[in-house]
Amino acid sequence: MSAWDLFTLAAVAAGAFFFLAGTVGLLRFPDVFTRLHALTKADNLGLGLIVLGLLPRAEGVFGALKLVAVWLLALLAAATVAQLVARLARREGDAGA
Amino acid sequence: MTALYLLDLVLVPAILLAACTAVGTRDRFAAVVSFIVYGLLLAIAWVRLGAVDVALAEAAIGAGLTGVLLLGALARMGRRADEAAAAGPPGRTLRLGAAALGAAVAAGIAAAVLALPEPAPQLSGAVAEALPALGLGNPVTGVLLAFRGYDTLLEAVVLLLALLGIWSLAPDPAWGGLPGLRHRARPEGVLAWLGRLLPPVGIVVGLYVFWVGADRPGGAFQAGTILAAVWILAVMSALVEPPAVRSLALRLALVAGPALFLAVGFAGLGLAGAFLGYPAAAGWAKPLILLVEAGLTLSIAATLALLVAGTPERAAG
């Protein structure tokens, strides 16, 4: 097992941990805003770590760039959707639901 | 290998669970969300089976576009919730009948699959043999555009018919007008920001998926869905108005793909001796296929976007 394999293993495991933490937060936190916080922050970091871990295994520079682009697009979508959901929750005033 | 089987062991029950939730739950919104989750999980299953083209189509059309259509239908149902409540839930006979029919179809398909001989009959060898003559690298594109061109042509026409069905629901004063209700978004808001930021990326990705379809997974349907999504995002962010459905440019875009496909098909009568045939001379088939795919991408994008935009509801100003 090379050093890169160890790096992949560690980064992907750390990423999976953040996904787990985000899911626990989604299930356990009391209202829409805290759940959004758990989901977006943890998922972004989790996906980022998984992409980071997979970079050494990507097919060439373009494969690596595609992986990073996937992460950036997911970041963008998650951040935007979190804003929209939070705005709607605040307007409807059912943040505790 | 064992790790992948573990993934399957999680994936298959998750698909079944999502499907059962989508059918069984009484909360309509939960049902739609379960259906979208079901589509995404199914896409992963297709990747596991090595059918990346199908996975792309399932994720883009099965989960994404159908999900948006269902959410749109749900939002409209909300306005008529009282009517629905007055009519009451479907009776026991109707539900049992629907369940029996659904179960019969499932049993029939299962029986057909289980009755297949081992090894299952397949044409993949024949496709692989004939593919070099087309100059394509992706066998799925070869099947869709050449070997089974009929199916693809009819699919493109069916999409158009679906759109005509939606348009025909328009009230008389709005006929030929703007589809859907006016979207509002704060001009400095995050949605408008995303609507400005994402389209350039989406257009590049859509065109890439179309272009790469000749040799790798991708093609007109997936690319058309991505381009439609870009346009829908721009409309939802209130950055552009959908065109009036009587617009000539719009209608030309809608029929360009099927018309081009038909024209190439009829040209095949003279050049290759068969409807939808491609000339045997080397180097002719691939440009023709790319031409048809380009037209189809445009038409599918326009059709899917207008399917989501909905019935004309406002007279063109």
From TrEMBL, chain A:
Transmembrane segments: 6-27, 68-89
Swiss-Prot/TrEMBL keywords: Membrane, Transmembrane, Transmembrane helix
GO MF annotation terms: sodium:proton antiporter activity
Keyword Membrane attached: yes
Domain of life assignment: Bacteria
InterPro entries: PhaG_MnhG_YufB
Name listed for the protein in its UniProt record: Monovalent cation/H(+) antiporter subunit G
Organism of origin: Roseicella aerolata
Lineage: Bacteria, Pseudomonadati, Pseudomonadota, Alphaproteobacteria, Acetobacterales
TrEMBL record, chain B:
Any GO CC annotation of this UniProt entry: plasma membrane
Annotated ranges, domain MrpA C-terminal/MbhD: 15-79
Transmembrane segments: 6-24, 29-49, 55-75, 96-116, 152-170, 190-214, 220-240, 252-276, 288-309
InterPro entries: CPA3_antiporter_subunitB, MnhB, MrpA_C/MbhD
Localisation: Cell membrane
Main location: membrane
Pfam (any one): MbhD
Membrane topology label: Multi-pass membrane protein
UniProt keyword list: Cell membrane, Membrane, Transmembrane, Transmembrane helix
Domain spans labelled Na+/H+ antiporter MnhB subunit-related protein: 191-310
Assigned protein family: Belongs to the CPA3 antiporters (TC 2.A.63) subunit B family.
Name of protein: DUF4040 domain-containing protein
